[in-house]
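COURSE: Structural Biology Practicum
ASSIGNMENT: Worksheet 4, Part C
STUDENT ID: 0417
INSTRUCTIONS: Below are two proteins. For each, the amino acid sequence is given first, followed by its structure token string. Answer the questions at the end about the second protein only.

PROTEIN I
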Amino acid sequence: MGTTYNILIADDHPLFRSALRQALLAGAEAPVALTEVGSIAELQSSLELRTDWDLVLLDLNMPGAYGFSGLVLLRGQYPHIPVVVISAQEEASVVNRARDFGASGFIPKSSSLQVIQGSVRTVLEGGVCWPALSGNAGPLSDQETTVSAQLASLTPQQFRVLTMVCDGLLNKQIAYELSVSEATVKAHVTAIFRKLGVRTRTQAALVLQQMELSWPGKTA
């Protein structure tokens, strides 16, 4: 029996996850083990439990994600894991940004089963998969490069705290959600401020939201 590929499907639409699961199982030329998550928090938990994933299929628009922030987090904390973005946002600018931020490929959600199967197979074999699209978003700006590097420097727990700060939660609420002490949250916030070069919660939230500025649209 050959190698079993461990694939993590990160998408907040159960029906699409189910369809993707069926497509991958039907088109697999080698054994695959599929795990599904529906939010950035669940994605982080799966990555913390094990790091030997062969591939992450990532939807850009999930709870806890701000544009390309989920991709930036993955590439910063787990650079050895290939990430393929799967999204209904199929504009050339979105595809090019996914490439710029380190994805190994992009699969439009409108793709046929054969295209999805072939693209996944290509990346598992060490290749990349990019749709043929016209147009070019241009290279990353200095600001985008700086922000992505800052976000990539955060630990998974710090990133989780930052997204909660961005959602307007107070330290006490964050502590309750993460089952940690308020002092621990304050320490995380201090570290986040230092890494992002900001002084206030509002400024920290704006840094994270900059990942959305180059993302034309909020559809899944």
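PROTEIN II
(use this one for the questions)
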Amino acid sequence: MKPATMLLIAAVTAAGHTAGFTPARADVVRHPIPNSTFPIAQVVQVTGNATTYYVSGQVPPVANKDADPASPQAYGDVKTQTVGVLNRIKGILEGLGLGMADVVKMQVFLVHSAAAPMDFKAFMEGYTQFFGGPQPNLPARSVVGIAALANPGFLVEIEVVAVKDAK
């Protein structure tokens, strides 16, 4: 690069800073999982003109404490697990001052095998309790059939991205 060009770039950059213009920047805040040392963030928040929240994949709560914790009986069927996971996500979002209406992207993982195909109908029965009824803001969404999740009892895992206008 020629010295004159470098000098011009430096002058324009300096003039922008003295005129009150600063390069766009995003602040990233990582919210840890409460009371946990597990090495993932529960939420990653990126701030610009809007704030974006990346909620880590959530799995279902125990529905039957008497069942083997490594079995689906401990967590329920796909509909029960879907409702449990979405309630968990709802609670996380509410803790950040958000709601399900702020969800803009959802990634769903449903356990699927030839012997036990994923129960998409049951997933939708749970999902529509949160989206498409009284709460009309629908997220972009993907549903993926997978071989297994971290616990053999889990049939559903869901992660979301939520956005709140900075106004």
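ANSWER KEY EXCERPT:
Q1: The chain has a mean pLDDT of 86.
Q2: Strands lie at 27-32, 41-47, 50-58, 103-111, 140-146, 156-165.
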